[in-house]
Amino acid sequence: QETGNAEVRFMQLDLASLRSVRAFASAFLRQEPHLHLLINNAGVSAGGTTEDGFSLPFQVNHLGHFLLTQLLQERLQSCAPSRVVIVASRAHCAGRLRPDTLATLGRPPPGLLSTFQDYCDSKLANVLHARELATRLQGTQVTCYAVHPGFVNTELFRHTPLWLKPLFLPLVWLFFLDAAEGARTSLHCATHEGLEPFSGRYFADCRPQEPWPPARDDRLARALWEASERLVGL
């Protein structure tokens, strides 16, 4: 009603439930013959565990999107040229994923700042996901991009601890982008012509930028992909 576009359709999807992801993908593929653009945009920073036994941030921010993209990949290829945009974050710089730690992938990391570390790990996973996806989709006319939207004032921060809110939230209101500004780089990667040579790259401020060195590690990207496949049952 707000857009005035009668073609907008709501379909329920809960990334914290792999069962819901599979149900959504099945319903979408039955009802919609075309898919040219997939934007994996959801994100949470809260602690907790999902019904699948994974940490909430890591499943919502990475594993749920990974499974969804895999289930829709064939349709993306049949409708090519098409694009996948994965909303990551500059917080990937603090991610600690390594090939020797992937055995515990999806479990909350230890320590006082466990939820923050989990969020950063999931954002590093987003950048690596785009990198490996681009490698695997070479020659298909499906391209993909990881995006840092900027620091955006959204409901992502509703789970900030109560003791921290008086210190943190004024900074959010003063210095962070609003949602429309934060969508610019995602929309750039979704719609701008001529980005195909940059498939797999990390974008910020509507241009490709170099991510943190671990996010450029092809061995880590491949190992994360294989571990993610195992965890979501592919």
Automatic annotation (TrEMBL):
Family stated for the protein in its record: Belongs to the short-chain dehydrogenases/reductases (SDR) family.
InterPro entries: NAD(P)-bd_dom_sf (IPR036291), SDR_fam (IPR002347)
Keyword terms, alphabetized: Oxidoreductase
PANTHER family: DEHYDROGENASE_REDUCTASE SDR FAMILY MEMBER 13, PHOSPHATIDYLINOSITOL-GLYCAN BIOSYNTHESIS CLASS F PROTEIN-RELATED
Alphabetical list of Pfam families matching this protein: adh_short (PF00106)
Organism field: Nyctibius grandis
An example Gene Ontology molecular-function term: oxidoreductase activity
Protein name: DHR13 reductase
Keyword Oxidoreductase: yes
